[in-house]
Amino acid sequence: MRIRKQGRRSKLAGLLALGLLTPGLVHGASFGGLTEWFDENLIDPQDGMLDSSDYLTGAYGFFPVPIIVTEPAVGFGIGAAVAYFHEQETLDASEHPHSGPPSISVGFGAVTDNDTYLYGAAHSGVWKEDHVRYLGALAGASVNLKFYPGSRTGGSDDEGIRFNIDGTFFYQQLQFRLKESNWWVGATYLYINAENTFRLEGEDPGDLPDPQFGFDQAGLGAYVEYDGRNSTFTPTDGLRALLEFRNYDDNWGSDFDYDHWVGALYHYTPIGVYSSLGVRLEGETVSGDVPFFGYPYVNLRGIPALRYQGEDVITAELEYLWGITPRWTLALFGGVGNTSSVDVFNSPDETVAAGGVGFRYRLARKLGLQAGVDLARGPEDTAIYLTIGSAW
User: Fold this and answer.
1) What is the pLDDT of residue 46?
2) CA atoms in the 13 A half-sphere facing the CB of 225
3) CA 185 vs CA 198, 222, 242, 338: distances in Å
4) Which DSSP letter does residue 43 get?
5) Fewer CB within 10 Å: N-end or C-end of the chain?
């Protein structure tokens, strides 16, 4: 399995914000005390609406967090996590014109309706006056997916070949801010020890790609990133750009030997007071001895993961967030993805599109955090997504 870098820190923090709505966060023995606590921590005095800004900026300690999975490739799922918010360092704004997210440690577990499950622990650390950021995770998982050899556009949901990857996943990332700028340089390491099993259910197996056995997948990467967005949660202004290279090789403990390049550009333009237009452009390419699940795929809402893979993949997407009121936003989005052929799949070049509508509620006004639901349509099916923070 591939771990996507884009937006993972903001999504983690946004997901943890859902814990504000769970009973375990409330410390009051009486109804009156509970009401007082709620009014002081979760009501914005500016408009009297539900808002978690003050609570999140001052969050400290253990909190339970619900997890809701809406990825169509694995089905609907639920889970839970226990997060520990570390006390956040206060920065001198005159010396440090930036403010990072809090450090968070979390243990988690989730299961979906196609029998996929995962469990593990992760830590997101912000150190040295937000000049060093760390992300690490260790997880066990059994993931049931499909891949789609041959021509795929317009096919039924039953055409894919089912497979299961069961194993242990280990990820490390360390990045450094260049002085007081918005530029970052970093390194990543991914290690997976797992077994792949095809689930053919009596079908003719044909020529199945490797691996068909236990395997180690390990890659060492480096990247440079510029992040000038006005929020790491739901940005409405600014630019983020990323260029990353990862090498999978036996020197790092891998059974596969290949290179993986990722380039991404995200631009946000404010329109009026509460609306914005987001533009996303991503490109990925791989070369070498690539496992079938390691090929890039079109990543758009409305299209399941791994549905359209290629040696080269380019994706472009627009998202308009129309602020109907200071709290409520209508989301309109659509995108196009193009894949090159993969010889081992006998798959052709393909271009696919997907789009949809959704809504957002401004859950933390001061932090720019919005949460809501998207309804997206792809070439084959319609899917619902829970969106916390940015969809990208």
Assistant:
1) 85
2) 24
3) 39, 8, 10, 29
4) B
5) N
Q: Please state the separation of Cα 114 from the chain's center in Å.
A: 20
Cβ atoms 85, 99 nearer than 8 A: no
**Mapping DSSP to helix (H, G, I), strand (E, B) and coil, where does residue 10 land?**
helix
CA-closest candidate to residue 16, choices 101, 141, 140, 142: 101
Using CA atoms, how far apart are residues 32 and 211, in angstroms rounded to an integer? Answer: 60
The pTM (predicted TM-score) of the whole model is 0.85
Q: Which residues pair with 166 in a beta bridge?
A: 142, 195
CA 356, CA 381: separation in Å to the nearest integer? 12
Render 261-326 in DSSP notation, one character per residue.
EEEEEEEEEEETTTEEEEEEEEEEEEEES--GGGS-B---TTS-TTSSB-SEEEEEEEEEEEESSS
Contact 267, 278 (CB under 8 A): yes
228 and 240 Cβ atoms separated by less than 8 Å: yes
Instruction: Answer whether 173's CB lies under 8 Å from 187's CB.
Output: yes
Query: pLDDT of 327-376, one tens digit each?
Result: 999 999 999 999 998 877 777 889 999 999 999 999 988 888 899 999 99
Segment 195-211 shows an average pLDDT of: 75
